[in-house]
Design brief:
Layout lengths: L1 H5 L2 H14 L8 H26 L3 H27 L5 H12 L3 H13 L8 H8 L2 H13 L10 H9 L2 H21 L3 H6 L1 H22 L5 H24 L4 H12 L5 H9 L5 H31 L1
């Protein structure tokens, strides 16, 4: 699995971008084009997941997986919070902000894992798109609660629940993913057929170019950071391994197939670098973006893309 992953064009484009940034190449992807690719990928994965659910219907397995995903998103930040405080030596505000990232999910990691597994004949259930969408926001709530409990005087108490809820629920990635998923459910196979060439045939090529851009961003973020200590770097690798193993075990325990259990592990292991930073900017302006963005995007994201997906798939195979 690791050899197949590392020789996949999708992963090789990410490595190319990462290395280009390390050698300080002037290679760049124009921001408007990168944003367009992001919109395309989220729309495509949401549509395809919705179509698949439309063909199978709502099942007990879907409901169980959704409940498991929600439970992971609410509880994983607690583990991260105490690791960041005790080992990483972070204060409660930065620890809470970072922990929220590690309970939420990375859409790009999810999309990459879905593509790699499907290429290897392990097709995850389409409803895992819905599970991913549900897992994006609960960690924010847990992260804020942990900060308030540990440091009630310094936590931002004036950011109302209404403002935070609006920031989270109207986040572009959340709206697009859920909206595309619902469109796919409503349209079904027959309605999806006319647009399938656009969202199916071009998907792999766009994903390659998008991961080239993500490799550039991840390496540049890491090179620019001055706030990441050795212990925080270690946690940036250790936390996804711990969370991913928990997620894979839980996915297997509730009866998911090998591919879907591996995806549950990938979701648990991934760290948000889009939705949660936006929420933290509003709710915890005192938290240092140089820490939470460098850890989630500069360390955890590359680890999961290159090694984590293979690791959690291997665990799911061994258990399944």
């Amino acid at each position: 699995m690791i050899v197949e992953t590392l020789t996949s064009p999708v992963i090789l484009f990410f490595i190319l971008g990462f290395l280009a940034a390390v050698i300080r190449s002037d290679l760049t992807i124009p921001e408007p084009f990168a944003k367009a690719m992001s919109i395309y990928l989220m729309a495509a994965i949401g549509l395809k997941g919705g179509v698949e659910v439309a063909s199978t219907g709502f099942t007990t397995e879907l409901a169980t997986a959704a409940a498991a995903g929600l439970a992971l998103s609410f509880t994983l930040p607690v583990i991260a919070f105490y690791l960041l405080k005790t080992i990483g030596k972070l204060g409660p505000i930065d620890a809470g902000a970072v922990s929220a990232h590690y309970g939420s999910v990375s859409v790009v990691t999810f999309v990459t894992a879905m593509e790699l597994l499907t290429n290897q004949g392990l097709k995850p259930d389409g409803f895992m798109v819905a599970v991913m969408a549900l897992m994006e926001t609960p960690a924010i709530i847990t992260g804020l609660l942990l900060v308030r409990a540990a440091s009630p005087k310094t936590a931002s108490a004036d950011n109302s629940a209404r403002n935070l809820a609006h920031e989270v629920l109207t986040n572009g990635s959340v709206v697009l993913l859920i909206g595309a998923f619902l469109i796919g459910m409503i349209a079904g196979e027959e309605g999806f057929a006319p647009v399938k060439p656009l969202f199916d045939v071009g998907f792999k090529g766009v994903l390659c170019l998008f991961l080239l851009d993500m490799g550039l961003l991840a390496a540049r973020r890491l090179l620019q950071s001055r706030k990441i200590t050795f212990l925080l770097a270690v946690l940036g690798v250790a936390m996804p391994i711990i969370n991913g193993v928990i997620g894979t075990l839980l996915g297997t325990f509730i009866g998911l197939d090998i591919a879907s259990a591996a995806i549950m592990g990938v979701l648990a292991a991934s760290a948000s670098y889009i939705a949660v930073p936006a929420a933290m900017r509003l709710a915890l302006p005192q938290a240092d973006p140089g820490i939470y963005l460098s850890m989630s995007l500069g360390i955890t994201f590359p680890f999961n893309i290159i090694f984590g997906i293979s690791l959690f798939t291997a665990i799911a195979k061994a258990l399944g």
